[in-house]
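Hey team,

Filing this mostly as a record. A colleague (T.K.) asked me to run one chain through the structure pipeline before their review meeting, and I want the input and output archived in the tracker in case anyone asks later how it was produced. No errors, nothing strange. Just documentation.

Input sequence:
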Amino acid sequence: MTPIPELIARKRDGGDLSAEEIDELILADVPDYQLAAFLMAVYFRGLSTRETFALTDAMVRSGETIDLHAALGRRVVDKHSTGGVGDKATLAVGPVVAACGVPFGKMSGRGLGHTGGTLDKLESIPGFRVELTTDEFVSQVRDIGIAVVGQTANLVPADKRLYGLRDVTATVDNVSLIAASIMSKKIASGADAIVLDVKVGDGAFMKSVADAEVLSEAMISLGRHAGRDVVCELTDMDQPLGRAVGNALEVREAVATLKGEGPDDLEALVVESCAHLLELSDLGVDLEEGRRRARAAIADGSAVEAYERWIHAQGGDPADGALPRAPFIREVFAGRDGFVHALPALPIGLAAVHLGAGRRTKDDPVDHAVGIVCRKKRGDAVEEGEVLAEIHARDEASAVEAATAVHDAYELGDDAPRAVPIVLETIGA
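Output structure:
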């Protein structure tokens, strides 16, 4: 066995590590300070493709794995987002796919910083259980067709440890480490086919399409290495997705989308993501047929029915009236006529965090009722005095502060800006 300091030094100096040596680092009882040094070396020197495969494989083997295909006897699909502002797409994609007869099984996470977490949104539904045992998770996917749960303590524990160290050592932003973190969880949780929504822009980890392409190719390679089918959608995060930002507000918007009443950008993304998942399923349909079936499930009400079955199955109340509402709403008004030229996602996300809709640290509580509704988005015409956004707050003071931040985030101009599609590029289709 090679001494750990020697492995750190070799990576620091730009050398390669074998799969066995990476196993020593990830699976043995290595102190946090040595792992932190290793992560910093990786941050500056990177990992080769082979080393990234080995790291991901070691992380998967650090805990239990689930084989949903063996349990159900058919292909199971999953969707993951790299994190954005107002991203409630999973809440609609899962029920649509389930309504089309394809089992959807997802282990999800909580939000940190300006990016919202799917579990936080689901926990705004009274009674909803995000903590299911592995057996309960598998049974629900089999019987109901959909389950979205928190990551179990025994699933990829090495990722939890590494991510905690990356978060406090400024080593989060590394393609190999990001790819290994995401794909180790996806591989261990057992789905056969995965659509990855890779956010690009102001409110995303990946600020440019070029960076997102590099990350996407890395994750697709890791998926293929593990026998998984992976498609990456590069999607616009220069503005919030949809109109609602904040947990209960986003649940309402997801349900509206399932009824065919959601914002155009969210509906377009949901339909496209569903189409890719249906194409990768056992149904044997092409992408265009997948789009048709997704739209049909929304139009005939079966997607909403699948949503209600899912929420009931995990102990929640799917009624709109059960969702919490903020006691104070303040409107933000346009100061001039024109068009919305930009609505950067990051300041909107940060304003929602300040209201209490997100976390500054992983231990912060979340206020599920508060948030922001962006009534006007990029390209919309506005008149002086017209409502740009609504602030849903716990008290007047926080509403006033958020209203100022949101007003300042809006950029108005005289002419309509160029339209930008929600899906910028698709890789791996």
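Quick notes for T.K.: The longest strand covers residues 193-200. The chain has three domains: 4-46, 68-155+162-320, 325-413.
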